[in-house]
Design a protein that fits this description.
Shape of chain A: globular
Mean pLDDT of chain B: 91
Order of helices and strands of chain B: HHHHHHHHH
CATH topology of chain B: MetI-like fold
Largest interface: A-B, 47 and 38 residues
CATH superfamily of the largest domain in chain A: Periplasmic binding protein-like II
CATH superfamily of chain B: MetI-like
CATH architecture of the largest domain in chain A: 3-Layer(aba) Sandwich
Distance between the termini of chain B: 58 Å
Radius of gyration of chain B: 21 Å
Structural class of chain B: mainly alpha
Number of strands of chain A: 13
CATH class of the largest domain in chain A: Alpha Beta
Number of domains of chain B: 1
Low-confidence stretches of chain B: none
Helix content of chain A: 25-40%
Helix content of chain B: over 70%
CATH architecture of chain B: Orthogonal Bundle
Order of helices and strands of chain A: HHEEEEHEHEHEEEHEEHEHEHHH
Oligomer: heterodimer
Strand order of the largest sheet of chain A: 5-1-6-13-7
Strand content of chain A: 15-25%
Radius of gyration of chain A: 21 Å
CATH topology of the largest domain in chain A: D-Maltodextrin-Binding Protein, domain 2
Low-confidence stretches of chain A: 18-49
Number of helices of chain B: 9
Number of helices of chain A: 11
Largest sheet of chain B: none
Number of domains of chain A: 2
Strand content of chain B: under 5%
Mean pLDDT of chain A: 83
């Protein structure tokens, strides 16, 4: 009897864990107008209300599974309430409102993002991804929605001032990202890669690591966290041809590319986009962008 | 050295969820691993050479490939080979169970061999079928002998579940990394996660210790 209870319990655990949808569903949220409101009874009512509201929009009635790697604040991260928040999440919400689709967020590992749509597990990715030739072979890209401004983070007393100062140094960045290619542009550089670049912060300035390449928005936060660090904006001329703007990724041959492009343009025109940039990156972003463009 | 543990504890509910997921993975993989390991152990004791060979081949493969590689194979490579898509949780439990079965079957096989062959011969002489001999006579005694080894495997399994964070399952380890990403803290979330794992292993070894003691009651003279 006792044994039966135990096995029943285990089967239940298994069933509960197995029943999640695309990717891992635990962190995913059903789309409702405001993400905070996930009350079961409410969301049903809201969804029907939304269905009539979104009528006439280009993607009304379409449900999409979105892939995201929520380990990259401020683009996407999990806050202390367990919600996925960030610039990409807000942008997606704005796009969904514009286009009328409903969505479900699927939090997964960075390395699994692209394969999640090439294997059909998910329908699109908004997760701070840039264009690359290799990626273009398996997915389609929308127009860019964010121009990444990169920065080298290092100890204040190291006193680097230009990209050539990093020749022959040890520079760390995110594994499997275009940042790797940027670091490789530096002559004689020793490239070190990390799953999450934050891991490397404590060892900057030791024999192991001289600097870290990251998005400027991250660099600012890193330097706030540890005041012995400082950053230098990487000139856009240095990353030209390697780094492109962040895009929404859709499966190869997707019918929604044009819809997304039009919606992105609308958001830029009506000011929603700038609002989101300032909300998540501050006015500093536009200043850093200017620095990067001028150098 | 500045430490900011307060910020980590704001993520309390996430950490609790992470612990539940880790415990869930451990229980599910222990259950399925155990389920597979018994027939596997019996197969290894079979008199038929091909059957025995399969049993050893299985163990050989699953012990010969790192668990992390197995996890990647199941989650990323399997959908390309066969037309099924597994969720992260399904892939994690499948990989961990298959892996766990290999180790547990070895322990159980050792247990079976620790029971004198004379008992099996006596059962045969009495006309008791092979399977009844195994499940009614040999395995119950074997289990008592292998309990410490199985407890050890379970502890390894609990710690091993941290690997599933790599494919994106939101277990304790991944929660730790999410906190790292959201707070830009490094040492604090990792230390908290390490402490929680340590406490879980302590609790587990305390419970298995109690179980072993109870099983030994009949050994007293």
């Amino acid at each position: 009897m006792k044994r039966r209870t135990v096995s029943l319990l285990m089967v239940t655990v298994m069933a509960l864990m197995g029943m999640t949808g695309c990717g891992s569903g635990e962190e995913s949220k059903k789309d409702t107008k405001d993400v905070e409101n996930t009350d079961a009874g409410n969301s049903v009512a809201e969804e029907t209300a939304e269905a009539s509201e979104s009528e006439g929009k280009p993607m009304a009635g379409v449900h999409l599974e979105m892939a995201i790697d929520a380990e990259y604040a401020p683009f996407e991260s999990v806050n202390s309430d367990g919600e996925i928040v960030g610039f990409d999440v807000d942008l997606n919400e704005a796009l969904a409102e514009e286009l009328g689709y409903t969505y479900n967020l699927n939090d997964m590992e960075f390395t699994g993002l692209i394969s999640s749509i090439s294997s059909g597990k998910c329908d699109y990715i908004i997760s701070a991804l840039t264009y690359s030739e290799e990626r273009d072979e398996v997915v389609d890209f929308t127009d860019g929605y964010y121009t990444p401004v990169m920065a080298m983070v290092f100890k204040k007393d190291a006193g680097y001032t230009s990209m050539s100062d990093f020749e022959g140094k040890k520079v760390g960045t995110t594994l499997g990202s275009v940042y790797e290619d940027v670091v490789s542009q530096i002559d004689d550089v020793q490239l070190l890669t990390y799953d999450v670049v934050n891991e490397a912060l404590p060892i900057i300035g030791t024999q192991e690591l001289d600097a870290v390449l990251a998005d400027t928005s991250n660099a600012i936060s890193f330097c706030e966290q540890d005041d012995s660090l400082t950053y230098m904006v990487v000139p856009l001329s240095f990353t030209e041809g390697i780094v492109s703007d962040f895009s929404v990724l859709l499966p190869e041959g997707s019918e929604y590319v044009d819809d997304f492009n039009e919606a992105l343009q609308t958001l830029k025109d009506n000011g929603t986009y700038e609002e989101l940039i300032v909300k998540w990156f501050g006015e500093q972003y536009y200043e850093d962008l200017k620095t990067a463009q001028n150098e | 050295m500045r430490m900011n543990f307060e910020k980590v504890f704001e993520y309390q509910s996430l950490l609790v969820n992470g612990v539940l997921v880790t415990v869930g993975f451990t229980l599910a993989s222990l259950f399925f691993g155990f389920l597979i390991s018994i027939p596997l152990a019996i197969i290894k004791e079979s008199k038929l050479k091909p059957v025995r060979f399969f049993g050893y081949l299985y163990t050989d493969i699953f012990r010969g490939i790192p668990a992390l590689v197995q996890l990647y194979l199941v989650y990323f490579a399997l959908p390309q080979i066969v037309p099924i898509t597994l969720t992260v949780n399904q892939a994690a439990i499948l990989a961990l169970s298959l892996n766990q079965a290999a180790y547990m079957s070895e322990a159980i096989r050792g247990g079976i061999e620790s029971i004198p062959v004379g008992q099996r011969e006596a059962a045969k002489a009495l006309g008791i079928s092979y399977l009844r001999t195994m499940f009614g006579i040999v395995l119950p005694q074997a289990f008592k002998n292998v309990l410490p080894a199985l407890a050890n495997e379970t502890i390894n399994l609990l710690k091993g579940t941290s690997l599933v964070s790599i494919i994106g399952a939101i277990d304790l380890m991944r929660v730790g990394r999410q906190i790292m990403a959201d707070t830009y803290l490094t040492a604090e979330p990792l230390l908290v996660v390490a402490l929680i794992y340590y406490i879980m292993v302590k609790l587990l070894s305390f419970m298995t210790g109690r179980l072993e003691k109870r099983m030994r009651v009949s050994d007293r003279r």
